Amino acid sequence: MRILFVHQNYPGQYRYLAPALAARGHEVIALGIQDNPIAQQQPGVKVVRYSFQCTPELIEARGVHPLLSDTQTKVIRGEAAAQAARQLKAQGFTPDLICAHPGWGEAMFLKDIWPTARMLCYLEFFYGIEGSDIGFDPEFPLSGDAMRMRTRTKNIFHLISLEAMDRGVSPTAWQRKQFPGAWQGVIDVIHEGVMTDQIAPNPDAEFRLGERGPTLKAGDEVLTFVARNLEPYRGFHIFMRALPEILAMRPDVQVVIVGGDDVSYGRAPEGGGTWRKKMMDEVGHRLDMRRVHFTGMLPYGQLIRLFQVSRAHVYLTYPFVLSWSMLEAMSAGVLVIGSRTPPVQEVIEHGENGLLVDFFDTREIAATTIAALSKPQDYVTLRQRGRQTIVERYDLRTVCLPKQIALAEEVGGQGEMPS
């Protein structure tokens, strides 16, 4: 079978699936924009890069309606991906199966180039006005009808891709539920998977805080908070407001905060600057900065070592895409204190394999965290059950990857999904 993977930052979610299919004898080509070094480490996968350029100035010069500016970007990227597909077709490549992430518009026109190819889309998120991220946080209310209209038009490219695809796959049931009901029946729920054999408890683990900072060890009183970028979508503002009480009640705790200062979701603070600066301006005078450490983004291996020395990990999120970091923390044996929001509740059952708190309740977050830090022996079973949950339901090698392979081969016409 000939398979084409399409992802602007390939491999993205296809890091393990593409080489696994190549190892099974399929011809695999990947199409992307970014020069991701991980892509060069995939045996059997030929990576093809294509160019894409769409600046705010270009959009403004074309006179695009403000509500369509995001769609304009997606269409230009989709057009560029289609042009690259035409070049592959001219070289004699016609895929039996296209695996594409439609989140950047790349999947919109691929079936126009190869009408007979089957397409399996990775469906990460469909924008909703009710019951999702938009309007969830009262601190950042919807600004009238304009925001609702903007949210609705952001789904245009998704709807085009949904109409073109043959099957879809979402990482959680809640994320599948965000898509229109007419398509939910052809969307499977399979997570990308966690390498639980590598991300496991390590009683000998150590984590060095910078070149001159202390070395943290497994068993130390360490509290962690991790996000790609420190912003409200991942509850950074809420965590920072709970932090003064945690520090006051736990004089030996070391707090390690991982994440960049850009904006992945939502908006930058009004007036500019970063959310870290904004929150430090608000609560920084109440923090003992000798015990609060901002690391920025960490290499993956260091992040895992940090989880292995962490006593408790706070994970807060809007109702939105579930972060890999939460599952990785659980796999490493950390007690996770998560927000009582979907899809966190799909993984964590309060008092069984972790703890759940109200996203907005800083007092509950602080009290729960203080208890977890002060009596770690009381939470050993929860930590063990947390890891067991990831091993049984999200392990890459034994659970998720076999299902991904079976789905891809079924959609491509090479097999059937196991019952």
Tally of separate domains: 2
Tell me the span between the first and last alpha carbons: 23 Å
Q: How many distinct helices?
A: 16
Strand content of the residues, in percent?
15-25%
CATH class category of the largest domain: Alpha Beta
CATH architecture of the largest domain: 3-Layer(aba) Sandwich
Shape: globular
Radius of gyration of CA atoms, rounded to a whole number:
22 Å
Biggest sheet strand order reads 3-2-1-4-5-6-7
CATH T-level topology of the largest domain: Rossmann fold
Structural class assignment: alpha/beta
Q: Please summarize the sheet with the most strands.
A: 7 strands, parallel
Share of helical residues: 25-40%
Low-confidence stretches: none
Number of strands: 15
> What would the average pLDDT be, to the nearest integer?
93
Q: What is the CATH superfamily of the largest domain?
A: Glycogen Phosphorylase B
What's a concise summary of this model?
The protein is built from 16 helices and 15 strands. It is an alpha/beta fold and 419 residues long.
How does the SSE layout of this entry go?
Elements: E1 2-6, H1 17-23, E2 27-32, E3 45-49, H2 56-61, H3 69-90, E4 97-100, H4 110-113, E5 118-122, H5 144-153, H6 156-164, E6 167-170, H7 173-177, H8 181-184, E7 187-189, E8 206-208, E9 215-217, E10 222-229, H9 236-249, E11 254-260, H10 275-283, E12 292-296, H11 300-309, E13 312-315, H12 324-331, E14 335-339, H13 344-347, E15 355-357, H14 362-374, H15 380-394, H16 396-411
Parallel strand pairs: 1-2, 1-4, 2-3, 4-5, 5-6, 6-7, 10-11, 10-13, 11-12, 13-14, 14-15
Antiparallel strand pairs: 8-9
